[in-house]
Amino acid sequence: MQNYYLLLLVALLDKIYIMAGLRPIDLVLSLDQESYWRNSTKELTKCDVDGSCRLLWPTQQVEGEVLRCMDQGLAERCRSNDGVRFEVEDLDTNTKHHLVLKRWVTNSFVFTTNWKRDFVDRRKLVQGDVVGLLWDGHSKFYFSLRRQVGK
Prior knowledge:
With 151 residues, this protein is α+β, with helices and mostly antiparallel strands. It has 6 helices and 7 strands; from the N terminus they run ααβαβααβββαββ.
């Protein structure tokens, strides 16, 4: 519930941040970074980093933290087999990429299209690493490598 109110706050204040030349995510992360990431992280499995070319994301997180904050039409497109292409900004490297969020055949959600190339290979991700994906409440996600195996 805390994240819901935080997202509402961000939605109200992000226009002010944009006018000031700042990104809305700067506000979110400045408020309480660790508790916010806690509900938006995943420990990578073998299937996330092998040749499957997709990141499986827990349905409860997608439904609770992302889709309920989206326009209904956009959320329905994400629930389809086609999905929706979103910009994903890597906060650690200040680079921008694109992933498709869609419902998988198992009724889970996956990020596909360039996941392996743009994240697994480029960031050298391995099983056991913990990554975070934050929805900005409007049109894009923010990615961060929260913990690396062996570091």
